[in-house]
Amino acid sequence: MLSLLGDEWTLLIVQRALLGARRYGDFQAALPVSNAVLSGRLQSLTADGLLERSQYQSNPPRSEYLPTAKGRSLWPMLTSIWEWERRWVPEHAEPLPRMYHSACASAFQPVTTCRACGAPAGGKDVAAQWGPSGSWQRSIPSGSNRRRSSGRRSGAALLFPQTMSVVGDQWAFALLVAAFVGVRRFTDFQAQLGAPPATIAGRLSVFTDEGILVQDGARYQLTDKGLAFFPVLVCALTWAQRWFPSPEGPAVVLTHTACGRTFTPALDCDQCGKRLRAGQIIAVP
Asked: Sorted alphabetically, which Pfam families does this protein's record hold (predicted)?
């Protein structure tokens, strides 16, 4: 999952496709992306099954890029990123647009709920344990993972600047997941993840600088901003386990402590209380 999505341009192109962009010029007009990067990402997104290329004109040949079911099902993760960046990250060159729910004609904020019982759920309300195919050793970065360019050095980082410090760095993603399941001390992060000390120190420094973690003596705690990243993590995990299933069973089993049932996230509108649908979300200035 991180190999596919740990790249800011990939996320932004899929987001624009879900908002209605179809043709090369649509993406070019909506994003500060070079022709070379856009062409490369459209090609890789097609190869990875997130977009489908369809020719709409033969002379001269012209194609459009349509989201597949795999691509469309990323909307909860992208919506959660949009809301987290809009609320918690002030350093955008231009403010991110608000989200508008066409079903109730209101600007809204998504609320993460338990699909089993319908109650709101945050990081403190969900217990995680390894499933049959899960372990730290199988979840941390390996040499087989594709390397992506750093989002913090590109124009896209102006749009998702801090999300990419988590999703765009596989060690950082693993470390933040560890923080959510209760790891607190430097030595425990190192022991669980098996990362070099400099790697752990560097990621902890980034997260404390960005206000995602706060250091209290030898312990690192999630801040309110860090806890608010929970919807992004859980929606990403749900997408990954749907599209990359293991014959052994799930990698991670989530339980909603309030109802005791398996936790699968849903996003509801905070204005009307109804379940959100991808086609009902519109960007407004």
From this structure: HxlR
